[in-house]
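== Sequence, structure tokens ==
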Amino acid sequence: MEGARTRPIWAFLTGPYAVFLLFLLLVPFANVAMYSIHPYSPTKVFLPELTLDNYRKIFDLYYVRLFGRTLRLGLITTAVCVVLGYPLAYFLARAMPRVQALCLFLLIMPLMVSAVIRVFGWIVILGRKGLVNQALVALGLEPVKLLYSETAVVIGLVNIFVPFMVLPIMASIERISPSLEEAAQNLGASGEHVARDAKRRPVKLASSGLKSAHAGADGCASIDGYEVA
């Protein structure tokens, strides 16, 4: 009886979100799928004829190479996010409350800024006369081309997705009681073995977060792959 009473409440709370997904996510996808089976026209939205030529072009060499670049950018971005995000997540999970709150604020604050503005910021840093090349010239080195390259794309994607990698891993580490590490040390385990075991468990627990971050990186990398190509 109690479970039956709570169902209408959950339906009421999740109903607006379901409507949001229906009209702003599923309907646009269905619209794109409908356009995909019609011939392309530079002067009209679509032609009334039906065709599968748009799907046959997926196997063209150009699109195969583009899909390969997309997958490569997504995998590289995910690997870099894991390497940079895991140590930070472990530090935040074991930090003092005040330090944790400050670091979380600094981690989440960039998400309040538009991605377009952050991209322009990286243009200033990675440009031909940007901060990186100016520092190289000051050291007597030759400037390097960083902008409009896959390296710049990976840097931009990592800047966007590191917070989404850190937060789920941090939540997983916080579920592991520090007393387990203390008990292992009391039983004679070295600090190296304790740290190694502490690294394995959060990664397993945070597998869903890693998958979601990977999916997001792949999706964004596909857009940047078209731009770089």
Q: What stands out?
A: Residues 108 and 192 are 31 Å apart (CA to CA). The mean pLDDT is 77.
